[in-house]
Amino acid sequence: MTIRPILVIPDDKLRQETEPVEKIDSDLQTLIDDMFDTMYAAPGIGLAAPQIGVLKRLAVVDVSKRDGEQVPLALINPEIVWSSEETSFYEEGCLSIPDYYEEVERPARIRVRFTGRDGTEQEIEADGVFATCIQHELDHLDGVLFIDHISKLKRDMVWKKAVKLFKREGPQTYTPKPKPPRAEGDEAEMPDEL
């Protein structure tokens, strides 16, 4: 289990477009495992490769409840091939923008085409928080952050605060710490950062 440091805005890598994954090999499998370990430790429900400094078109998601069975999904070279005209609002957060949450409007349903970690081409439909999570992570692959979907005033406020911290303390990263296993009877909680 390798938990990698997560980049924090205004790190330039979070604004860069990613390159397609060319081959699925043992290095990529290790990267996927590390991404899941990092995401679960954060805790989060999604993580894109640029958030750990890897500029590849790769994201991982798992919107299952914390006390249930994990349902990990790796998305290699994903693309949204359809989205509904109907929209929905969800409060989003981001592991690369700690402690900031804002309601974001996105298509309510999507269809995404990707390569699975086993090398097979796949296409799935998603709705609800699953659709929101996928869209959030795919935005990262194009250098887009969830704050780009909110008002300029709010976005500028968040960005200026991050730049001020960067100037004072230098580049920001953090390495999540794994959580101890839940004791029976503990309240389950849904992670709130994508």
Task: Record keyword descriptors for this entry.
5-stranded antiparallel beta sheet, 3 helices, alpha+beta, Peptide Deformylase, disordered C terminus, 25% helix, 194 residues, two-stranded antiparallel ribbon
General description of the model:
With 194 residues, this protein is α+β, with helices and mostly antiparallel strands. The protein has 3 helices and 9 strands, in the order βαβββββββααβ. The strands form 3 sheets. It has a 5-stranded antiparallel sheet with strand order 2-3-4-7-8, sandwiched between helices. Strands 1-9 form a two-stranded antiparallel sheet. Strands 5-6 form a two-stranded antiparallel ribbon. A hairpin with a 2-residue loop joins strand 5 and strand 6 (97-107). The protein starts with 5 loop residues before the first strand and ends in a 20-residue tail after the last strand.
Quick recap of the structure?
With 194 residues, this protein is of the alpha+beta class.
What is the total tally of β strands? 9
Element string (H = helix, E = strand): EHEEEEEEEHHE
> pLDDT average, as an integer?
91
Q: List the total number of helices.
A: 3
Q: Per CATH, what is the topology?
A: Peptide Deformylase
Provide the CATH top-level class: Alpha Beta
Question: Can you tell me the number of structural domains?
Answer: 1
